[in-house]
C-alpha cells in the first residue's frame, strides 16, 4: 500500500505504508466482526430437533430460545470486551506507552525500583481519577534500554559515575526527562575561582571549575577558534572581539543591537529566555541592563552549562525536544537563532514555535536572530509559519552573508505577540 500526501493549509499530511502493528489491529477488528455475526446467526437460527422439544409448549420453547439468545449475547459481549482490551493495548504499544519492560533481564536494580509504579496510599484520587504514581521518564527511553540501564547502574548513597556524556547522549536520543538517581554528583572545587557579580560576566573562566566529562576537549585552549554551530563561533573566548561586541555593535543589517530591541518593548522587558545560547553572552548583555535571562543549552563539544553558571547566569540543561518547564505567558522576550531549525524538519519547528508562543506573554517580543535560510523555500516556510501566529512585525530584515565561501541567506526579525481572545 503506497503513501498518500494531502495538502492541509500550509502543511502536508502523509500516510505511510501500513506496518505489521496496524495490520494486526485491522485483522483483529475483522475477526471480531465476523465472530459477532456468526454468533448472532447461530443464536437466531438455532432450532432443537429432538423429540422432547416437540412435546414442549410454544411458550416453553420461546422461553428456552430467549435464554439461549441471552447466553449467546453474553458470549458476544465478552468477546467484544476482550477485543477492545487487546486493541487498547496495541494502541499503547504503537504510541510507546507502557513499553518499558522492567522484567527484561540484565536491567539494573535501581532502574527497576525507579520505574516501578506505586499505589496511592488513600486509593483513587477523586479529582484526577489517578490510582497510582508513575515515574517521570521519557517513553522514548524504551529504545535505549541498554544505555539507560548503564546510566542507572551505580552504588546507592555513593558517588555518581563520571557519565555526563552518557546522560547527554540519552537526552539527544529523546530519553528526556532522565530518571532520578540516589548518588552524589561529582563536586568541583570552585573556591577562589569565582568572581562577584557583575564582574563575573566578562572574567576568564578557569579550566578547573568546569566538567569536561564526555567532551573531546579538556581545556578552553582546545576550544579556541572552534565553530560550535552557526550561533557559536569561538564563543567561549570572552576576550575575542567578535564575542564581546555581540549584541552591542552590529557587523551588518541583520545584526540588531540589544538597546534597539529593548526600545521596542512598550511595557518593558524584565525576564527572557535565550534558546541555544552558547556561552551565555546574550544573557550577560541583558544582565547589564537589569534583565534576567535563562539560557537553554546542551554541552555540545563544550561545557556550556558550567561556563554560563560561572559567569553568574542561569543555565537550563535540556534539549529542544522537551516541553519548556515554564508556566504560560511568563516571558517578556524570547531570543533564538538558527538552532530553532531542529533537525531541519518542518513539523518539529512548528511544535517548538507553539511552545515558544505558549511561554511568551501577550505584547512580548520574539527576537529571531540571524535564522539561517538554506533556500528561498526555507525562507518562505518560516515566513508562513510566523504569519500563522499573527505576530506584529516590528522589524524584519532578510540579508546575505558570506559563509563557507558562498553567499548565505539569513532572516532577522523582532515580532510582537498579539493579544488573543
Instruction: Estimate nothing, just give the exact number of structural domains.
Output: 3
CATH architecture of the largest domain, by name, is 3-Layer(aba) Sandwich
Low-pLDDT stretches are: 1-18
The description of the largest β-sheet is: 7 strands, mixed
User: Roughly what is the average pLDDT, rounded to an integer?
Assistant: 83
From the spread of the alpha carbons, the general shape counts as globular
Strand neighbour order, sheet with most strands: 7-6-5-8-9-11-10
CATH level 1 class label of the largest domain: Alpha Beta
SSE series? EEHHHHEEHHHHHEHEHEEHEHEE
How far apart the termini lie comes to 44 Å
Number of strands: 11
Main location: membrane
Pfam family, one: Methyltransf_29
Family: Belongs to the methyltransferase superfamily.
GO cellular component, one term: endomembrane system
Amino acid at each position: 500500500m503506497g503513501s498518500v500526501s494531502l495538502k492541509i493549509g500550509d502543511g502536508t499530511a502523509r500516510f505511510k505504508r501500513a506496518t505489521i502493528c496496524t495490520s494486526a489491529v485491522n485483522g483483529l477488528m475483522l475477526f471480531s466482526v465476523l465472530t459477532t455475526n456468526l454468533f448472532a446467526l447461530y443464536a437466531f437460527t438455532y432450532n432443537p430437533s429432538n423429540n422432547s422439544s416437540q412435546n414442549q409448549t410454544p411458550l416453553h420453547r420461546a422461553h428456552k430460545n430467549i435464554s439461549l439468545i441471552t447466553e449467546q449475547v453474553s458470549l458476544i459481549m465478552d468477546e467484544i470486551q476482550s477485543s477492545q482490551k487487546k486493541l487498547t493495548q496495541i494502541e499503547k504499544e504503537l504510541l510507546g506507552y507502557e513499553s518499558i519492560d522492567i522484567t527484561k533481564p540484565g536491567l539494573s536494580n535501581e532502574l527497576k525500583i525507579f520505574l516501578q509504579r506505586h499505589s496511592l496510599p488513600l486509593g483513587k484520587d477523586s479529582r484526577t481519577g489517578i490510582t497510582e504514581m508513575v515515574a517521570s521518564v521519557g517513553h522514548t527511553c524504551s529504545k535505549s534500554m541498554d544505555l539507560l540501564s548503564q546510566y542507572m547502574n551505580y552504588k546507592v548513597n555513593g558517588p555518581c559515575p563520571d557519565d555526563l556524556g552518557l546522560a547527554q547522549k540519552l537526552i539527544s536520543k529523546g530519553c528526556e526527562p532522565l530518571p532520578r538517581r540516589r548518588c552524589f554528583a561529582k563536586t568541583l572545587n570552585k573556591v577562589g575561582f569565582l568572581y562577584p557579580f557583575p564582574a563575573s560576566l566578562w572574567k576568564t573562566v578557569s579550566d578547573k571549575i568546569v566538567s569536561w566529562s564526555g567532551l573531546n576537549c579538556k581545556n578552553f585552549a582546545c576550544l579556541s577558534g572552534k565553530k560550535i554551530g552557526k550561533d557559536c563561533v569561538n564563543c567561549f573566548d570572552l576576550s575575542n572581539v567578535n564575542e564581546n561586541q555581540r549584541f552591542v555593535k552590529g557587523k551588518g543589517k541583520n545584526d540588531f543591537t540589544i538597546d534597539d530591541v529593548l526600545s521596542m518593548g512598550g511595557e518593558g522587558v524584565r525576564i527572557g529566555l535565550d534558546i541555544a545560547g552558547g556561552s551565555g553572552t546574550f544573557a550577560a548583555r541583558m544582565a547589564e541592563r537589569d534583565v534576567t535571562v535563562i539560557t537553554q543549552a546542551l554541552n555540545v563539544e563544550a561545557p556550556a552549562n558550567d561556563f554560563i553558571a560561572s559567569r553568574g547566569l542561569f543555565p537550563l540543561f535540556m534539549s529542544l525536544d522537551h516541553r519548556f518547564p515554564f508556566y504560560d505567558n511568563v516571558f517578556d522576550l524570547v531570543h533564538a537563532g538558527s538552532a530553532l531549525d531542529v533537525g531541519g524538519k518542518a513539523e518539529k519547528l512548528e511544535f517548538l514555535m507553539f511552545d515558544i508562543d505558549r511561554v511568551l506573554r501577550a505584547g512580548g517580543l520574539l527576537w529571531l536572530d540571524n535564522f539561517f535560510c538554506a533556500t528561498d523555500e526555507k525562507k518562505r516556510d518560516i515566513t508562513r509559519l510566523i504569519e500563522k501566529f499573527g505576530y506584529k512585525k516590528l522589524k524584519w530584515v532578510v540579508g546575505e552573508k558570506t559563509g563557507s565561501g558562498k553567499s548565505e541567506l539569513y532572516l532577522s526579525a523582532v515580532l510582537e505577540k498579539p493579544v488573543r481572545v
